[in-house]
Design goal:
The chain is of the alpha/beta class. Helix content is 35%, strand content 26%. The protein has three helices and six strands. Helix 1 crosses helix 2. It is globular. The N terminus is likely disordered.
Length: 137
């Protein structure tokens, strides 16, 4: 078969992890701390201090093996925290949801994973100004 014979849908991935990162320059860390404290009111324990790298904070958002669950959790997060995310971006804080897929988590040696980004998800991401990354390690 051709090159695309080993395509996995998101349902064929054993595990995916979505983390959210709020990052900025060192000079802007007070803004990140303020944003993190506001975020804790919406999503408790999201902000637990500046991470060791010294550029902001991150937290786990979802660890389901089903893309549909990640999609739902991301939409729920931007619905609840959209104003905080927009405020962070206006303060030059990069806010990113990173969906990570480890090669060993792919079923049957599949090399490509498809994550469908539907209109509702794209609209919610755009409205909140949340960036989305998909990382395959």
């Amino acid at each position: 078969m051709g090159r695309l014979s080993k395509v996995a849908t998101a349902e064929e991935v054993r595990a995916m992890y979505t983390v959210v990162r709020f990052t900025t320059d060192h000079d802007n860390l007070m803004s990140v701390t303020d944003i993190g404290q506001r975020l804790n009111a919406v999503r408790p324990n999201s902000f637990r201090g500046i991470r060791k790298v010294g550029d902001g904070f991150s937290f786990d958002l979802c660890d389901s093996d089903q893309w549909v669950h990640h999609r739902e959790v991301i939409i729920g997060f931007v619905t609840a925290a959209g104003e905080i995310i927009r405020d962070a971006v206006s303060l030059h804080v990069a806010v990113t949801a990173d969906v990570a897929i480890e090669p060993e988590d792919l079923v049957d040696g599949n090399k490509l994973v498809t994550l469908r980004l539907d209109e509702d998800l794209i609209r919610k991401l755009s409205e909140s100004r949340l960036a989305l990354e998909v990382s395959r390690y």
